[in-house]
Amino acid sequence: SMKNTETSTGYDILSSHQIIYLSAAINTMNDEVLKLMLDNPPEILDYTTRKQTRDKLSSSEYRVTASIMLSGKGFDPIGFYADENNFVPFSGKLYSDSSGTDRPTIELDIDTASENVGLFGMIAGINKPVEIENLIFTGNVKTSSYGAGIIAGCISAPGQKNNYGVKVSNVDSSAHITSTSGGDSYAGGLFGWGDFTSVDTTIHPQIEFNDINMTGTVTAYGSYGGGLVGYLCGQSQAVASNQLNISLNTIRQNGTVESGPSSGGIIGGLFGAITCQDGDVDNANSVAELKAASR
């Protein structure tokens, strides 16, 4: 149970079972699962208690202390996006204390017809950016729908008004990401897609990649396949100072991107109000092999 590994700043993740329980708690607010997260839970949890517990879990910090293997047979991505009125993002932090080759590995094996798949279904930086730090990812994420990335299928979507973005630091991935959807695939090495058009224009969202090493593959049967992100769209009416800002610092992209229209070694498609200021792109090397999708 999670309550046994609660720390002063969040929770320690020791096993795949904890992530499976965490996903069920956040995605379904199931009574029995939530009780595993609470000390001395009441017999029946009222809606307010269930929602407060989910909100705490979805915004907490999680320190990964051991390598983890997650298979699609028992695992649903954490958080989800169904439509602009029905979504639950993860808004916390996932990290390890190791910075070298001893970083823990998260391995995923997902083959599904569901949209928005990865370790997380949806993330959003509510009040501050989501942080992913000091981790190694591997495995396979495959969907016949849209939205696939090893970390998250979706990082912002219509209806999400509060989103400060995401910061990824010291992450390696050798994962294979595939969307066999013939329309918009939205497949990326780390994130599938992000649509920031609903984000309040007083917010200045940031997407920051620092020290990223990519050696896997991205295959998009449809459009929008990218080495890091498949598709990004900024706020529609943002003033210049608050536009979605993308920052790339020391990116090594040595993988393969195979996509229909709109593909890229770093990002597949970029739309709307987005800035990438001078100095925000530092040592971003993409030697990704770009190929037209054949199926």
Give your account of this protein's structure.
With 295 residues, the protein is mostly beta strands. The chain is built from 3 helices and 25 strands. The strands form 4 sheets. The chain has a 15-stranded parallel β-sheet that branches. It has a 5-stranded parallel β-sheet with strand order 8-10-14-18-22, with no helix packed on it. β4 and β5 (86-88) form a beta hairpin. α1 (16-28) crosses α3 (47-58). The chain is globular and about 55 Å long. The mean pLDDT is 89.
Unreliable spans = none
Give the percentage of residues in beta strands. 35-45%
The sequence of SSEs as H and E is EHHHEEEEEEEEEEEEEEEEEEEEEEEE
Radius of gyration over alpha carbons?
18 Å
Short description:
With 295 residues, the protein is mainly β. It has 3 helices and 25 strands. Helix 1 (16-28) crosses helix 3 (47-58).
